[in-house]
């Protein structure tokens, strides 16, 4: 599966994204237009353990904004895509959804003892998580 297809799958597929996605450019256009909040809900059901879903969702989109609109802003859509991208990467490396989720939700010393899923809420944080994963792929401690 192409990386952008894996991301779309984590967001609930083309229907949840609100349009067909055949390329990274299509995904970017969907993000700029604003993802339907169903895409965020689908991602939360995949990436977050049940007790953590609402808390993580509220960190991506403040509760009032979430309740006010059925379409996420471009900024909130970008954060949603970023979490899906990091999740897709982790799932492809671990090849096991349970192990991938465990990695995402376990504090990591190379991330200042923060959870990768929380670090990935910002673009720079996502890059740090990607670097940790890349080091692991090259045989360095993760």
What's this, in brief?
The protein has 142 residues and is an all-alpha fold.
Key phrases:
142 residues, mainly alpha, 68% helix
What's the alpha carbon Rg, rounded to whole Å?
Answer: 14 Å
Structural class of the secondary elements? mainly alpha
The total count of strands amounts to: 0
Distance between the termini: 25 Å
What form results from the Cα inertia axes? globular
Structure in words:
The protein is mainly alpha-helical and 142 residues long. It has one domain. 68% of the residues lie in helices and 0% in strands. The chain contains ten helices and no strands. Helix 4 (37-47) packs parallel to helix 7 and helix 7 (74-94) runs parallel beside helix 10 (123-137). It is globular, with a radius of gyration of 14 Å.
List the helices and strands and how they pair.
Elements: H1 3-10, H2 13-17, H3 24-33, H4 37-47, H5 53-60, H6 63-68, H7 74-94, H8 97-104, H9 116-119, H10 123-137
